């Protein structure tokens, strides 16, 4: 669930809804378990962690992910493109789910794959491995990365860890833990790099559908509903599909992640200052966030790791027919959730204002954004947006739950 409090014109709204993970409801599930060898946990498993893992026992979440062809086929392509680094090697799949990425690695010639998942979906993953006659190659470990034992170093880590706004759910921490526990020097992490972007957007249709509707309802003036409608529609970050036409400026890089070097401490709080210049005149309704991940080898830089995405670089690299491959000495594979790309189940995350701000062409929009792991639950993310434009300053605070 997403819950927010705001200081941009409307007070707190205290109604609570059922908590959700990025792909489905957090619910309790009961099933058989897969035998594992465990160590004493280095970090405690909280009730929030249990709820999070239980949510991923629900098959619908995995169906949604697997049916996301952009996601699943890009991972398959990346694994096969790096087959020479996987063939005959030891692989760990962090958060294996149904085991599909582990099977891709086995088919790419991996000597051994450790498929790790703390959710009860590990039971089904083990059955999937068996029915595909891969039990001699893939070992399913039911438990947290912090707890399970792997008695050898690994050559490759593969994981689909990205949440909404990239960092929601904090699953990247599990990849970092696996890297620090098991990865050999010079080993491979797929994906290797990630970049979180943001940009101001205009979305009159969304605002009209949610707010202006109440001005005339079957000929009845229901404008007293407007304040409540704004809170119900825009208090929470909205996961939805926008298009490039909604984006007012070139995007800003909020955070670049190198999975080979990033630390747990680095992810606890991320702050970035932004400075935008509107490319058109229109109402500014909020900020949209999206991300890319890349599948590179150690020592190969990401396509773009600047603090600000230059206009010419972004235009040349993100526009065009095929964004999954880049022309270079070694082709790189890219998974993008950008508005101008084919939609994924991540869509884009939009933080809407309660009231739009009119901006002129070339008007400056500047401020800062801070993303912080919640003290209540590290898988939740606090969002603090401070921004100003046209001589007016605003603050919006949100919590992604």
UniProtKB/TrEMBL annotation:
Keywords noted in UniProt: Methyltransferase, S-adenosyl-L-methionine, Transferase
InterPro entries referenced in this protein's UniProt entry, alphabetically: Arg_MeTrfase, PRMT_dom, SAM-dependent_MTases_sf
Stated name of the protein: Protein arginine N-methyltransferase domain-containing protein
Region (Disordered): 1-32, 308-341
PROSITE patterns xref list: SAM_MT_PRMT
PANTHER family in the record: PROTEIN ARGININE N-METHYLTRANSFERASE, PROTEIN ARGININE N-METHYLTRANSFERASE 6
Function text: Arginine methyltransferase that can both catalyze the formation of omega-N monomethylarginine (MMA) and asymmetrical dimethylarginine (aDMA).
UniProt keyword annotation of Methyltransferase present: yes
Molecular function as annotated in GO: histone methyltransferase activity; protein-arginine N-methyltransferase activity
Annotated TM spans: none
Biased composition (Polar residues): 308-320
GO biological process, one term: methylation
Gene3D superfamilies: Hnrnp arginine n-methyltransferase1, Vaccinia Virus protein VP39
SUPFAM superfamilies listed in its UniProt record: S-adenosyl-L-methionine-dependent methyltransferases
Signal peptide: none
């Amino acid at each position: 669930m997403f819950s927010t409090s705001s200081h941009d014109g409307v007070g707190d709204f205290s109604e609570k809804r059922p908590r959700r993970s990025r792909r489905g409801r957090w619910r309790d599930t009961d099933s058989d378990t897969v035998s594992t060898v465990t160590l004493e946990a280095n970090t405690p498993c909280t009730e929030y962690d249990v709820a999070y893992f239980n949510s991923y026992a629900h098959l619908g979440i995995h169906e949604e992910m697997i049916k996301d062809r952009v996601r699943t086929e890009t991972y398959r392509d990346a694994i096969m493109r790096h087959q020479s680094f996987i063939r005959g090697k030891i692989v760990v799949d962090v958060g294996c789910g149904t085991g599909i990425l582990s099977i891709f690695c086995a088919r790419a010639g991996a000597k051994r794959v450790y498929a790790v998942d703390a959710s009860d979906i590990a039971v089904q993953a083990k059955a999937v491995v068996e029915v595909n006659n891969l039990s001699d190659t893939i070992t399913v470990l039911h438990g947290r990365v912090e707890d399970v034992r792997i008695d050898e170093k690994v050559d490759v880590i593969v994981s689909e860890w990205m949440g909404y706004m990239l960092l929601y759910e904090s699953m990247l921490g599990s990849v970092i833990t696996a890297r620090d526990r098991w990865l050999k020097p010079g080993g491979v992490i797929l994906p290797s790099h990630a970049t979180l972007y943001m940009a101001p957007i205009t979305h009159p249709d969304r605002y009209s559908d949610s707010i202006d509707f109440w001005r005339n309802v079957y000929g009845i003036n229901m404008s007293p509903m407007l304040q409540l409608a704004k809170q119900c529609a825009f208090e929470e970050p909205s996961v939805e599909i926008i298009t490039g036409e909604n984006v007012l400026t070139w995007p800003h890089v909020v955070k670049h992640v190198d999975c080979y070097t990033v630390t747990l401490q680095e992810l606890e709080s991320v702050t970035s200052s932004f400075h935008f210049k509107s490319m058109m005149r229109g109402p500014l309704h909020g900020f949209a966030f999206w991300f890319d991940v890349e599948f590179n080898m150690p020592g190969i830089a990401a396509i773009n790791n600047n603090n600000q995405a230059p206009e010419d670089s972004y235009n040349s690299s993100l526009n065009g027919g095929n964004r999954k491959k880049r022309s270079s000495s070694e082709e790189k594979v890219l998974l993008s959730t950008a508005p101008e790309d084919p939609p994924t189940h991540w869509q884009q995350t939009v933080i809407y204002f309660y009231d739009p701000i009119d901006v002129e062409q070339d008007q400056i929009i500047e401020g800062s954004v801070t993303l912080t792991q919640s003290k209540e639950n590290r898988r939740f993310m606090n969002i603090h947006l401070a921004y100003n434009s046209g001589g007016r300053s605003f603050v919006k605070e949100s919590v992604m739950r």
